[in-house]
Amino acid sequence: MYAINNFLNNDDIKIIDSMGAFTVIEYQRDLSVTPETAQLAYYCNAMNVRKRQVVCDLSKANLTVQAGAMQWMAGNVNATTGVKGVGDLFSKALRGSVTGESAIKPEYTGDGTLVLEPTYKHIILIDTADWGGSIVLDDGLFLACDANLTHKAVMRSNLSSAVAGNEGLFNLGISGRGVLCLESACPKEELVEIVLQNDVLKVDGNMAIAWSGNLEFTVERSGKSLIGSAASGEGLVNVYRGTGKVLLAPVRGGIA
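^ thats the sequence. predicted structure below, dont judge the formating
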């Protein structure tokens, strides 16, 4: 038996989102300031630069968490590597080497409380059912998810996507039914959702932070010819083709 006081019931903390086992909290003021940092804290508060944390209720689901993201845990919480044998370890290591993600993501089980490290980034909760059970993420977004979700390295549709677009050849794909927790530099309120029905989306730059796993993703010239691309001034664009959704940040590099 345990009790957590002066946390979720603190008047400086506001619950801003909740889904499945995840609850997202936001600190309304930075009270741990000194005279030297007070001015910075004042302007950060005015511009919505606030600390946020994810609180996980493990009685609702077992969770897979980005390595190093755990801050503290209370009650019956067990941490494992999530590795199911030598073959699974090799698969995870290979996937980590090509996607840039940590090879081993710890899995937490039990029925206690798990709290992740605070961040000034924005936390976005996604139900994979809304994405047809499969979603592909741009680098650096993954924070945590239901442990029953499957992780895999998703290769671009062709080599030109990586070479010509100066991008990596692989992205992290998540499949199955459950809740996914992302860490984004762009708030959810500013993200643009494009829904395609057997159509095409062309984006100049890495503004897409996530897209449906069944979409074909390539890098192509913006025009049908080199002359046409030169005339448009765009050159190469990221192309998403098929039926599904794409989540766009309003500015280039919106996940940096």
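Residues 86-99 form the longest helix (14 residues).
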